[in-house]
């Protein structure tokens, strides 16, 4: 109620101020104008919500513009697909996130189906590590696997697995043809830790990102693993 009242007063003030500049209305005129505005807003309250929704949209668009460089152009991120692809898809994910696991097959099939038109940027966001104690280690293993040219294989295998203990991760790495000793050394690279920290900071600057998975397809933001919605958004971006 306070928000509605404040909004109505603000609108009334703006309109009254505009009238004052045009013809300097008396206090009686202003009261009549305010009464008209209030009556109109009371009869059409949805206008206030529409205005607030539009304000939220503009604010989020401005915030996204401020972080776009970090979202799409961090050279440390794993990127698959041509740099000049028609569609850039960004995914924030955690290897212990069940919904992330559900969407992995769709992401891989998208890469296979559109090798020239879609670029996927993988954003490791181990936000469940406080509970699982394994998410961050899995993310480090995936990024270390990238140094051996095996990121997508490791990423997919980790998404398909559960119980991601250090020993389990070693077994997964061995099964996808990774040099485990080199992987363990590369996982200690401070640059990997720095990337994970920077990605967390970046994620906190995106208002809509409240969990994983979170996708950005060109300018469309999609939370969750609704693959039907993701597919529709992808097709719209490809046709646009």
Task: Fill in the keyword field for this structure.
Glutaredoxin; disordered N terminus; 5 strands; alpha+beta; 11 helices; five-stranded mixed β-sheet; elongated
CATH superfamily of the largest domain: Glutaredoxin
The percentage helix is 55-70%
CATH topology value of the largest domain = Glutaredoxin
Total count of strands? 5
The chain-level mean pLDDT equals: 88
Class of secondary structure makeup: alpha+beta
Number of continuous helical runs: 11
What is the overall shape?
A: elongated
Q: Which strands sit side by side, in order, in the main sheet?
A: 1-3-2-4-5
> Beta-strand level of the residues, as a percent range?
5-15%
- Going by CATH, the architecture of the largest domain would be 3-Layer(aba) Sandwich
- Please compute the radius of gyration using only Cα atoms: 25 Å
Task: Note the main sheet.
Answer: 5 strands, mixed
CATH class designation of the largest domain: Alpha Beta
Q: How far apart lie the N and C ends? A: 41 Å
Q: Report the order of strands and helices.
A: HHHEEHEHHHHHHEEH
How many structural domains does the protein architecture include?
Answer: 2
Which spans have pLDDT < 50 for at least 5 consecutive residues?
1-22
Brief overview:
By secondary structure, the chain is α+β, with helices and mostly antiparallel strands.
């Amino acid at each position: 109620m306070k928000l509605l009242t404040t909004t109505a007063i603000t609108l009334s003030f703006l309109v009254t101020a505009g009238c004052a500049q045009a013809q300097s209305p008396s206090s009686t005129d202003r009261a009549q104008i305010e009464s008209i505005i209030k009556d109109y807003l009371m009869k059409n309250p949805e206008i206030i919500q529409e205005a607030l929704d539009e304000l939220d949209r503009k604010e989020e668009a401005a915030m996204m513009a401020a972080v776009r460089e970090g979202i799409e152009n961090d050279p440390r991120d794993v990127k698959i697909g041509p740099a000049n692809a028609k569609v850039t898809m960004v995914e924030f994910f955690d290897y212990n996130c069940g919904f992330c696991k559900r969407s992995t097959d769709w992401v891989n099939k998208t890469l296979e189906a559109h090798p020239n038109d879609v670029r996927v940027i993988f954003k490791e966001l181990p936000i469940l590590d406080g509970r699982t104690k394994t998410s961050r280690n899995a993310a480090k293993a995936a990024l270390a696997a990238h140094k051996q040219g095996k990121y997508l294989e490791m990423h997919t295998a980790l998404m398909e697995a559960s119980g991601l203990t250090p020993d389990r991760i070693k077994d997964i790495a061995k099964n996808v043809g990774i040099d485990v000793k080199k992987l363990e050394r590369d996982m200690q690279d401070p640059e990997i830790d720095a990337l994970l920290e920077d990605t967390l900071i970046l994620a906190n600057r995106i208002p809509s990102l409240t969990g994983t998975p979170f996708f950005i397809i060109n300018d469309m933001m999609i939370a969750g693993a609704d693959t039907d919605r993701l597919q529709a958004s992808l097709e719209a971006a490809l046709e646009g």
